[in-house]
Amino acid sequence: MNIIGEHIVLRAVEEGDLPKLQEWANDPSIQSMLGGWHFPVGMQDQKKWYDGLSVGSTNQRFAIDVPGDGIVGTANLVNIDWQNRNGFHGMLIGDPDLRGKGIALDTVKTIMSYAFNELDLARLDTDIIEYNVRSIEFYTRKCGWRVEGIRPSWYFRKGRRWDKVVVGITRQQYEEFMACSI
């Protein structure tokens, strides 16, 4: 089953996507904006990651597909806590020429609709390294998410410590956001 947005399709990651995913995994300009620690990724490790994907998992990863362009990024719903109805969302748009074209907004709206309306989650959150101001403003100004906290000195990048900015959205906030977006 694909998850259909206005301009994008969230679909399963396919083996044919691996070269593009490996390229993005090894792109310092992309990885510097993401959490976690990153090491060079060879195709063998990319394949192991792919082989570990499971539809029954609490960690779901999607290819962001734009009809006519193919895969342009990835999105996820991970660490899904079914008892408390929470999930963590992350996203990357791999091609810098496609950033600022509405793909990310359509992706987040599609993820929120799926999470709240299909999976019946109560809230989503994500965290962003403090110098990724573009992402913080995107989620809070364009997607209805709210800054929920700061975790000081969480990341080490560029020779210094950086804060983790935690942003999230509840189902009620999502419904209010969507009502204002119409």
From TrEMBL:
Residues 8-163 form the N-acetyltransferase domain. PROSITE patterns: GNAT. Pfam families: Acetyltransf_3. This is GNAT family N-acetyltransferase. InterPro entries: Acyl_CoA_acyltransferase, GNAT_dom.
